[in-house]
Amino acid sequence: MHTSDAIQTRRSVKRFTARPVTREEVESLLQAATLAPNHRLTQPWRFYVLGPEARYAYGLALGDRKARKLTDPDAARTLRETVAAEHRALPVMIAVAVVKTDNPEIAEEDYAATMMGVANLGLAAVALGLGTAIRTGAVLDDPAARRAIGVVEGQRVVAIVNVGEAAEQPAPRSRTPAADCTTWVP
Ligand SMILES: Cc1cc2nc3c(=O)[nH]c(=O)nc-3n(C[C@H](O)[C@H](O)[C@H](O)COP(=O)(O)O)c2cc1C
């Protein structure tokens, strides 16, 4: 597949089919992530491929946060359990972390490189007939979510990337043409 085709057809996938994703496929996606541009070659990315128990525990942490907004305890319990079960059912869930540094310039570069790795992963997935969904938010710093992932001290979780075969191809989201975002500076 041409890179331009992968770029054009990549979508954030909402629902995955039951088609399993092999360990070899996951390994090749992570290998693609590690080829991202990376100033100083700090290779700051760390990947946690979560099994069903870890996905369930992460889902409970996320579900807890969502459930706190509900007043009805039964609805809260159901929501928590639903979110946890949805996560357990995911074909593949990868937590992407970046190694922390005290140097703010390097921290910014390392975050950028890690997210470029996530972009690589998303495009490599398209080439394998797979789709991805990136998830972020305050939950990534939640102690229960960090425990579920098993992330070690000194690393910041910057994204969850779910991977699997897309149940359907979402329509493209409308984008502002590049020309409208561009200034040609003489
Ligand atoms: C850094 C980053 C964080 C994102 N976090 C979320 C998220 O928490 N939840 C979500 O539904 N989508 C998230 N997305 C996906 C975007 O919503 C999605 O890329 C956007 O809607 C455009 O759709 P497309 O990816 O299909 O082109 C994230 C994307 C990026 C790059």
Q: Helix and strand layout, with pairings?
A:
Layout: H1 3-9, H2 23-33, E1 45-50, H3 52-67, H4 73-88, E2 92-99, H5 104-127, E3 131-135, H6 143-149, E4 155-164
Helix pairs in contact: 1-5, 2-5, 3-4, 3-6
This protein binds flavin mononucleotide.
Task: Give a written overview of the molecule.
This protein is α+β, with helices and mostly antiparallel strands. It has a single domain (3-181), classed as NADH Oxidase (3-Layer(aba) Sandwich). 44% of the residues lie in helices and 16% in strands. A four-stranded antiparallel beta sheet has the order 1-2-4-3. It is globular, with a radius of gyration of 18 Å. It starts with a helix and ends in a 22-residue tail after the last strand. The model has no long low-confidence stretch (mean pLDDT 97). Bound molecules: flavin mononucleotide. Flavin mononucleotide binds at residues 11-12, 134-137, 170, 173.
